[in-house]
Amino acid sequence: MKDKSYIWISLVILVFGIWAVPKIIKKFEKADLMVVGTTPKFELVDQNNKTINNDSYKGKVYVVEFFFANCPTICPIMNANMMKLQETFYGKMDFGIASITIDPTRDTVEALKAHADGLGVKNPYWHMMTGDATYIYDLAKKFNLYTGVNPESPGGFEHSGLFALVDKEGNIRCRKDENGNPIVYYDGTSDEGVQWLKEDIKALLDE
């Protein structure tokens, strides 16, 4: 009887190993997302008057956008989609958002705090950041995300509605299109872009 018990225990361990090992290996595999660059160094101040830099997001997956609080066109859509990401990954302390204003004259710490509260920002790692205008525009260039001053544009500024996805090691990551080319950035104004982000954030969180 004792020998039979050992046999059954051995079989259970074997079956568990066959089932579990691939899952454990998968857990430590890199997601099938391309590395398209590293996050440029930055240091800004957020809506809580705290200095935020790359180290503030260390070990976190996060999404980067350039926006401004008084934007009357695409920013409300981008904000709403960021809120969807916050809701989807609510409670995940390894997920964050970096929202950087391109209108620092009006978007003071106090203004960004009011804007964040109005949106319902709850993620402690959703930093709405401001700083020197020249510094911010140079940072946007390093991210290769378009920003510009244009008095003729609604709100006085121009910017893309694209989001950058950053992994836990500070790499900018993205999926490939149907031809195998990197999409590089995600359309923060479309349902498809947000759905891709949700899927790819989850993949990076699982790395």
UniProtKB/TrEMBL annotation:
Check the record and name the SUPFAM superfamilies matching this protein: Thioredoxin-like (SSF52833)
Describe the location of the Thioredoxin domain by residue ranges. Answer: 33-202
Keyword Cytoplasm appears in the UniProt entry: no
| Keyword Metal-binding among record annotations | yes
Q: Which GO terms describe its molecular function?
A: metal ion binding
Q: List the disulfide bonds.
A: C71-C75
**What Pfam families does UniProt report for this protein, alphabetically?**
SCO1-SenC
Q: Keywords assigned by UniProt?
A: Copper, Disulfide bond, Membrane, Metal-binding, Transmembrane, Transmembrane helix
Q: Which positions bind Cu cation?
A: C71, C75, H159
Which chain regions cross the lipid bilayer?
Answer: 6-25
Question: What PANTHER family does the database record attribute to this sequence?
Answer: ELECTRON TRANSPORT PROTIN SCO1/SENC FAMILY MEMBER, LINALOOL DEHYDRATASE_ISOMERASE DOMAIN-CONTAINING PROTEIN
Family recorded in the similarity comment: Belongs to the SCO1/2 family.
This chain's protein is named Photosynthetic protein synthase II
Q: Which organism is it from?
A: Myroides marinus
User: Species lineage, top-down?
Assistant: Bacteria, Pseudomonadati, Bacteroidota, Flavobacteriia, Flavobacteriales
